[in-house]
Amino acid sequence: MNNIEQESNHTTHQPPIAMYLKVWLLLFILSAFSYLVDYLNFQGILRWSLILLFMFLKAGFILSIFMHVTWERLTLKIILFLPLFAVIVFIALMFIEGDYIFINRNITTVING
Amino acid sequence: MKNTQLPKSELDSLKNDTELGWPSVNADWSKDKQVLAMPWGKLMMWIFLLSDTFIFSIFLISYMSARTTVVAAWPNASEVFALTIAGQHIPLILIAIMTFILITSSGTMALAVNYAYRNEIQKTVYLMLATAALGLSFVGLQAFEWSKIILDEGIRPWGNPFGAEQFGASFFMITGFHGLHVTVGVIYLTVIANRIRKGYYQHKGYHIVEITGLYWHFVDLVWVFIFAFFYLW
Description:
The complex is a heterodimer of chains A (113) and B (233).
Chain A: H1 2-8, H2 17-39, H3 44-66, H4 74-81, H5 84-111
Chain B: H1 8-15, H2 21-30, H3 40-69, H4 77-80, E1 83-85, E2 88-90, H5 93-117, H6 121-152, H7 166-197, H8 207-232
Antiparallel strand pairs in B: 1-2
């Protein structure tokens, strides 16, 4: 049994439970903040930047603490995050294309009444 | 040595490897050994989650494409998902409750993983079952949300009374796929918790709890993005 216990602690650093509780509380607060963005009816750039800020903070805490990425080796981090670059490129391409389509649809609407 | 193909001496050398940064990456890939010293199930779960990330990214990108190209006004999610509770009209309240439920379940799951590695198995089982119960209530609320939206608001994948037709298609596709993940997660958690209770992992080690946890946290992670982009934006 002793041997197994040693083994199961091999690859994983175990943070104290208090840390989880703090992050948990923080996630609650961040969720409440992102709900408030809607409740208080913020609009425009302020709304979008606050939504993104709270979203990335929440995602970061879940990934780094709850999913233990902080304590993983750099090799795994690269395996996980390098492919996401393709997603970012895809988002950028589709956003530019979407803008172009929108302008053309508007022109068509104006010309055809 | 039941969780890995490596002899113990090599695992020890990895454990004691103090290299950090790029030298550690170089060492991991170039030394004549298994690249990542972790149970294969954990690495496979990470690879699966990475591929799942791509699927959800594609859904959200298609939603972005629809939303940026439509000429008609996009329905205001804040109002579509509002509820009247005790005579009070509260915008987006159902989604907020669902968000808090999912965050709570993520917390109980994180604690379950921690207790599993501390060999407090009874607590692990209870926390995993609590996580599954919270997941189930999430799915229940989602079923309520869907029926409200389909029956009361008349939203369909091909059109709705509020504006752009693509709203329904994006909504059912994205939240449906996420709900499917939560449902699968509830089943997964229940099966694993039951196996732990029966002592199935007594000699195998409790890595399985961390692997299950990775899946569950990922479901929560995806919801963070859906909440931000679909409901709040």
